[in-house]
Write a structure and sequence with these properties.
Layout lengths: L1 H11 L12 H13 L3 H11 L8 H34 L4 E4 L1 H5 L15 E5 L3 H7 L10 E4 L8 H13 L6 E3 L2 E3 L2 H18 L4 H17 L7 H7 L3 H13 L14 H13 L3 H7 L1 H7 L2
């Protein structure tokens, strides 16, 4: 069933025309539940619609529920986008540079057809200032349905040496964090790829990740190929300097295996061994002791 789910994702992203076989009614139920758990309900609904052309139809009761859920996600995404823009405008009015990280920033890479179907969960904005100063001088709106999180540091877990290197690198490349993109300011394409993999690593260790976060990386890589591949950023060197080279290689493997991304668009050499471990954790749920065996230093830091 996992392979069928990956195929549904690829159909949804127009990486594949059709599934390798037609799912049984109970399998459609399982695919829907997996999509829900992986925060991919809206995205996968686009795949369901595309499969109608091939005569693959979801049971009527399920497809009605699925459609309603997708419409709800679209409505929430629209609200989150409006609120993100409003918060950035208020910060700009007071002279605070800000950049939208993940969330609605990543959604912009999905394109017009899928952008509002990315399931939102909050607004994350990097502010280049003291947070206490910002919150004291800027009237940040509060919405029950749209949590707003302001950050002025970018971390990579609890390892102080790694975080020192990370802050030093971001300070050196500060301008790439603040690039105008329509009504938003967010990281440059090349910077965004680095940030998303770093954020993925942090979440992988301490919170757990879903297919939604991996999809963000997929679209960032697609956009990179369209916009900035000529910049020749040495991603392997960057990830190695942060100590996450193997993790980044595993992420690249999932890009091809799950999403069908052309290997020429991967920024570092893929690793099947690391990728299989990441994918297992995504699909089966975060397991501390498996992570401890693979990432002992970071997991020990996490319990200090």
């Amino acid at each position: 069933m996992e392979q069928l789910f990956y195929e549904l994702i690829q159909v949804s992203l127009k990486q594949l025309d059709c599934l390798s076989r037609g799912p049984e009614p109970e399998e459609w139920e399982e695919l829907h539940e997996t999509a829900r758990q992986q925060k991919m309900t809206g995205i996968c609904y686009r795949g369901v619609q595309a499969l109608f052309e091939f005569g693959l139809r979801v049971p009527q009761d399920l497809v009605i529920d699925w459609m309603a859920q997708a419409e709800t996600i679209e409505e929430r995404s629209s609200i989150f986008t409006q609120h993100t823009i409003k918060v950035q405008q208020k910060l700009a009015e007071k002279g605070y540079p800000s950049s939208v990280l993940i969330g609605q920033g990543s959604a912009r890479d999905y394109g017009d057809e899928l952008m509002m179907l990315r399931e939102p969960n909050g607004i994350n904005i990097f502010v280049d200032a003291d947070i206490d100063e910002v919150t004291a001088s800027v009237d940040i709106p509060e919405w029950d349905e749209t949590p707003v999180m302001l950050h002025n540091t970018i971390g990579l877990g609890k390892n102080p040496y790694r975080n020192w290197k990370l802050r030093k690198w971001f300070a050196k490349n500060r301008k790439s964090l603040f690039v105008k993109d329509g009504e938003m300011v967010r990281p440059a394409v090349s910077m965004n790829v680095v940030y998303l993999v770093l954020n993925l690593y942090w979440r992988f260790l301490y919170e757990g990740i879903t297919m939604r976060e991996l999809t963000d990386v997929f679209f960032a890589l697609k956009r990179l190929a369209d916009k900035e591949r000529a910049s020749q950023v040495k991603y392997d060197k960057i990830f190695r300097s942060f100590g996450i080279s193997r993790f980044a290689q595993g992420v690249m493997w999932t890009m091809h295996t799950v999403f069908g991304l052309d290997e020429s668009l991967q920024v570092v050499k893929p690793s099947a061994k690391q990728g299989q471990f990441i994918l297992h954790e995504v699909m089966s749920g975060r397991h501390f002791f498996r992570l401890l065996l693979k990432h002992p230093i970071e997991m020990l830091f996490s319990i200090l």
